[in-house]
Design a protein that fits this description.
Elements lengths: L7 H7 L7 E7 L15 H12 L5 E7 L1 H7 L1 H7 L1 H5 L3 E2 L6 H7 L2 E4 L3 H8 L4 E3 L12 H8 L9 H11 L5 H6 L6 H13 L27 E6 L5 E7 L12 E7 L13 E5 L10 H11 L5 E7 L2 E6 L4 E6 L8 H12 L4 H7 L1 E5 L2 E6 L5 E3 L2
Helix pairs in contact: 1-6, 3-4
């Protein structure tokens, strides 16, 4: 993991962590007192998942879970996926039990964990850690892990979650003890372990240097939001729209402000919500013959869902084609430095038009979409306004 740390940004991009986003990794070992627990009603992680996806804005935080292989083995992959189904449709990535956990740990901004080794590795890397479960039974009283579990910051499930994470990130100061306990010879494990193993089996070591395979770059896995999204928007300044999307299932935090609308992906499981959506969107190639074209698909959606005000076909990581209820068809394109799901552009356009602003003004001055502290410039070239009726 130490050798792979220079590739942290690549690992973050592989997980779809964008500009201004914070990656929260949930880590659980495998006994009944762990963060995940034993499948009973009082387990911490299952009760946290709906709150995490409800309290953390979907475009400002990325969520991933690393569960011990024995959790997968004990309950079975089907049961694990069933328990985490709603959270995964709300954007949680469930990391495979044997591959990818180290890359996720390197990419993490913060880890919510327990007394397991993965949580301790996070602390050894200097990553901020909150303990959601912290049993001391079974840990040797004189072990550094015992001291870590006893003194590390605790997550308080009775309080709002986001302020606890943000406070930890703002005030975190890594301590050297976890790293010192994990390895007294950083960077030398391959050499030392190979020497030990060959001594134990009583044969001579190979002449060449001991080398380890580098951590592979995981496949690209951006957050997938197929649950209906609650969207809050504000127009803080000229040419700006602030967009905050929440994936539920609970209502948005009480201290949030803005005009509300609902954005629903067409292939959602909650098909009954499509009839109530203000914005309907989908992702795909502009050349996909199943939908004829983005223009055809957007027209079909508005005809099928009379309550929908805007349909958006996301054609790439920085573009989407949008049709308004008034008949305008236009393409929104990411400007320099923009790094957010283009479906956010569609919600920004919905807010722009809802505030009484015109498409002509949008084309003339462009648009800055804000998600948290990140700014994403969006342009609408005059040639990209495909038709206005």
């Amino acid at each position: 993991m130490l050798a792979a740390r220079p590739y942290r940004e690549r690992f973050r991009r592989a997980l779809g962590v964008g500009k201004g986003q914070r990656l929260v990794v949930l880590s659980s070992t495998w006994n009944p007192e762990s963060l995940f627990g034993d499948g009973g009603g009082d387990d911490v992680l299952p009760s946290l998942l709906p709150r995490l996806t409800s309290e953390f804005p979907a475009d400002e935080y990325r969520l991933a879970a690393v569960l011990h292989p024995n959790v997968w083995h004990g309950h079975g992959p089907g049961q694990i996926r069933a328990w985490t189904d709603r959270a995964r449709r709300a954007g949680l990535s469930l990391i495979a039990p044997l591959e990818g956990w180290r890359q996720a740990l390197i990419a993490a901004d913060v880890v919510i964990g327990d007394h397991g080794s993965v949580t301790y590795y996070a602390a050894a890397l200097g990553t901020p850690v909150l303990l959601g479960a912290a049993p001391l039974a079974g840990l040797a009283p004189d072990a550094p892990v015992h001291a870590f579990v006893r003194t590390a910051p605790r997550l308080d499930p009775a309080r709002p979650l986001r302020p606890q994470i943000d406070t930890l990130l703002d005030h975190h100061r890594p301590t050297p003890e976890p790293a010192e306990f994990v390895s007294s010879a950083p960077g030398e494990s391959a050499t030392l372990l190979r020497r030990l193993f060959y001594d134990l089996i009583g044969i001579a070591e190979p002449d060449g240097p001991a080398r380890l395979e580098p951590l592979p770059l995981p496949p690209y896995e951006p957050a997938t939001h197929t649950v209906p999204l609650s969207v809050l928007t504000r127009l803080p300044g000229s040419g700006e729209v602030a967009v905050t999307r929440y994936a539920g299932p609970h209502p948005a935090p009480y201290d949030t402000t803005g005009d509300a609308h609902t954005a629903v992906r067409e292939d959602t499981r909650e098909v009954d919500r499509l009839a109530l959506a203000d914005v309907v969107f989908r992702y795909g190639s502009a050349e996909d013959p199943r939908f004829v074209s983005p223009a055809d698909w957007t027209a079909e959606i508005l005809e099928r869902h009379p309550q929908c005000a805007l349909a958006a076909y996301v054609t790439g990581p920085g573009t989407c084609v949008v049709r308004t209820r008034a008949g305008a068809l236009l393409e929104l394109t990411a400007g320099p430095g923009a790094d957010v799901d283009p479906a956010v552009y569609a919600s920004a356009l919905y807010a722009w038009l809802g505030a009484g602003k015109s498409l002509e003004e949008l084309v003339e001055q462009g648009l800055t979409v804000r998600t948290g502290a990140a700014a994403h410039p969006v342009s609408v070239p005059p040639t990209a306004v495909i038709r206005s009726e």
